[in-house]
C-alpha cells in the first residue's frame, strides 16, 4: 500500500519533502508532479526500482529514460553538452522539455539507450519537483506517468491512488496535473530533432 502525501503545489511542506526523499533513497518508486504532467521517479542507481518502473510502464530496453535535474550544472555532469546545445538548454530550462543528449560515464549503464548511449535530461519548473531535487541533491530517474495502452498521462492523484497504490511506494498529490507530457528534443546529433511534441513549444527547435 503506497503512502499519499498532499503537498502544497506552490509552497511544498519541507517535512513531507524530506519524508519523500527518504522513501526515494530507500529504493521507493514515487509519483510526483512536474511542469508538464505527473511522472514516475526513483533513485538514479537503484536497479530494482528502475525495473519496477520498466514493468509498470511496459518499456523495452530501447526506451530513453530521463534524468530530472535541478539545474543546468547538474545536466553537465551527466551529459556531453557542446556550445550549441548549451545555448538551447540555457534558453529553455527550467521548462517542459526533455533533451536527449550523449551520456557521460556518470550515467548508470542500465539507464542508457543500448545502441546510442544517450540519456534524456530535463529541468522542471514545478515547485514540488524542484524541492524534491534540492533535498535529494542528485537527479531523479523518471518517466512520464502514461500507463500501457494509454496516450495521455494520468492527471488525477485520486485516480492514481485507485489504480497504482499497490505498485508504487508514494503518491505526491500536488493537485491536478497536465494532460501533456514534455516536448522531447534530440540534441545528440548535429541538428536538433523534435521527437515528441508535448506541452513545450517546439517552434524554437525547427519543424516537427
From TrEMBL:
Signal peptide positions (record): none
Domain annotation YrdC-like: ranges: 14-200
Domain of life: Bacteria
Any one Gene Ontology molecular-function term assigned to this protein's record: double-stranded RNA binding
InterPro entries from the UniProt entry: DHBP_synth_RibB-like_a/b_dom (IPR017945), Sua5-like_dom (IPR006070), SUA5_domain (IPR052532)
PANTHER family for this protein: DHBP SYNTHASE RIBB-LIKE ALPHA/BETA DOMAIN-CONTAINING PROTEIN, THREONYLCARBAMOYL-AMP SYNTHASE
Protein name in UniProt: tRNA threonylcarbamoyl adenosine modification protein, Sua5/YciO/YrdC/YwlC family
